[in-house]
């Protein structure tokens, strides 16, 4: 049964983008709600004004009819001020026939249906909105029952809602034009405000990204505000204080332990050498002592490496700088390590020019030794090649092996302390993972650079470059 894999986290947008989006979306919703409400309220207000106007005019016409006034004249006078083409008044009989009408065109045909006519004759005052046949205009119609000469009649008044529609259209144009413009302004303002608010967080993140294990004395900037960002920066600095104290204690422990172990190991190595030099040992005992001597030598190298790293961390590395021929350093290192390579069936070749740099010969020899030793360890067959070179304002040495190579994504990490690649290279031999880290520290102390890449013909190539002397 396989364990369930954790769900992949979806990438989230930056906080600044999310804040701006929320500002804009919230304003958009508010504007939409206010716009709908404003349009509805304006429609209701204008429609109410028309309804009140129709009711007032209908009362005037009804009173004139009861007083015996002439309908056409009275209705024309009552409808003054309204649109003459889309407004009108009519008097309907009980069967829906137009008995009398104003001079307006819309009044020539009944403006209400027979069903609505029946409702009005039952005593109900009717207010409806609709369209007449053959007319594109929308009318607001009021109908009420009246008596004309003792006969039941229905007084109908209607006027166009074009004024209301025009006002709504103008308001919608304003909202649809000004709304997006307001959203753009708010989005830009929100983006600027969010950036201003998050600027201290960005400063803290940028500084924290630059703080590495060798720069733990640095701290992130604390903004001069007593807010969450200020507390975050103070908490981060407090954590850096604890980390710095812990790392410093670890370095002191490594330095002290390495220094204290050097003398016992040297004594053990000397005693083992004396014992092995005696000729009266049994073969089995000699083999055991020889194996022990190899392990003591290995421990001595590890302790020496740890002590060297402790010196680097404390800034106690001393360099005796003088002109150094890099080709000579390569030749000397190759001569020393050829027996080790020959035991594995490997050859060590030295090529290149004779560039001269200013440096500590012993320390540069340690760099080349670490690189060649590392190459011999991880090469099963073939050769190790040392090439001394000069290019422009710098010179250096490249060490190339014919081993299995290092994956490209791990090349940048091979100089980390105690790092070993999870490949066949790290399984064929034992090692502490300190050789390349020490080489990097020495090269950096010489103001140089060191890197690793894959050789085009296979294997790994590790190079370091130092600045050439001025002049």
- The CATH architecture term of the largest domain is 2-Layer Sandwich
| Strands, count | 12
Number of helices: 10
Give the strand order of the largest sheet, numbering strands 1, 2, ... along the chain: 2-1-5-4-3
* Main sheet: strands, sense, barrel: 5 strands, antiparallel
CATH class of the largest domain equals Alpha Beta
Taking Cα atoms only, what radius of gyration do you get, to the nearest Å?
49 Å
Q: Any overview of this molecule?
A:
The protein has 471 residues and is an alpha+beta fold. The protein folds into three domains: 147 residues, 2-Layer Sandwich (Beta-Lactamase), CATH 3.30.450.20; 87 residues, Helix Hairpins; 146 residues, Histidine kinase-like ATPase, C-terminal domain (Heat Shock Protein 90, 2-Layer Sandwich). The strands form three sheets. The chain has a five-stranded antiparallel β-sheet, sandwiched between helices. It has a five-stranded mixed β-sheet with strand order 7-9-10-12-11. Helix 1 packs antiparallel against helix 2, helix 6 runs parallel beside helix 10 and helix 8 packs antiparallel against helix 10. The longest helix has 52 residues. The chain is rod-shaped and about 155 Å long.
């Amino acid at each position: 049964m396989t364990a369930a894999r954790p769900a992949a986290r979806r990438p989230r947008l930056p906080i600044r983008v999310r804040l701006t989006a929320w500002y804009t979306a919230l304003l958009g919703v508010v504007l939409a709600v206010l716009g709908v409400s404003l349009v509805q309220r304006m429609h209701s207000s204008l429609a109410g004004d028309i309804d009140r106007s129709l009711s007032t005019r209908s009362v005037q016409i009804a009173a004139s009819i009861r007083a015996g006034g002439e309908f056409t004249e009275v209705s024309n006078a009552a409808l003054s001020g309204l649109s003459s083409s889309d407004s009108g008044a009519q008097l309907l009989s009980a069967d829906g026939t137009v008995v009398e009408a104003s001079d307006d065109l819309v009044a020539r045909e009944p403006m209400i249906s027979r069903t609505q006519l029946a409702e009005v004759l039952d005593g109900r005052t009717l207010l409806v909105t609709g369209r007449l046949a053959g007319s594109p205009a929308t009318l607001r119609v009021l109908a009420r029952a009246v008596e004309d000469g003792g006969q039941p009649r229905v007084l109908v008044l209607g006027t166009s809602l074009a004024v209301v529609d025009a006002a709504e259209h103008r308001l919608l144009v304003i909202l649809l034009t000004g709304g997006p413009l307001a959203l753009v302004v708010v989005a830009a303002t929100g983006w600027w405000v969010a950036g201003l608010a998050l600027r201290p967080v960005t400063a803290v993140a940028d500084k924290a990204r630059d703080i590495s294990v060798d720069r733990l004395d640095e701290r992130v900037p604390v903004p001069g505000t007593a807010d969450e960002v200020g507390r975050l920066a103070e908490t981060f600095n407090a954590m850096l204080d604890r980390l710095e104290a812990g790392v410093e204690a670890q370095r002191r422990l490594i330095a002290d332990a390495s220094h204290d172990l050097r003398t016992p190991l040297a004594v053990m190595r000397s005693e083992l050498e004396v014992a092995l030099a005696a000729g009266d040992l049994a073969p089995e005992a000699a083999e055991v002592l020889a194996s022990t001597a190899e392990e003591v030598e290995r421990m001595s190298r590890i302790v020496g490496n740890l002590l060297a790293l402790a010196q680097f961390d404390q800034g106690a590395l001393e360099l005796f700088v003088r002109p150094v021929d890099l080709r000579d350093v390569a030749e000397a290192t190759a001569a020393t390590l050829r027996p080790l390579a020959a035991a594995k069936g490997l050859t060590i070749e030295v090529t290149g020019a004779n560039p001269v740099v200013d440096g500590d010969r012993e320390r540069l020899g340690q760099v080349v030794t670490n690189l060649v030793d590392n190459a011999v360890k991880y090469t099963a067959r073939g050769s190790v090649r040392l090439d001394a070179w000069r290019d422009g304002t710098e010179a250096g040495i490249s060490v190339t092996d014919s081993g299995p190579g290092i994956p490209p994504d791990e090349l940048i990490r091979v100089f980390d302390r105690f790092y070993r690649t999870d490949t066949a290279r790290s399984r064929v031999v034992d090692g502490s993972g300190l050789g390349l880290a020490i080489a990097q520290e020495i090269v950096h102390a010489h103001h140089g650079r060191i890197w690793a890449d894959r050789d085009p013909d296979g294997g790994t190539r590790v190079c370091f470059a130092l600045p050439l002397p001025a002049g």
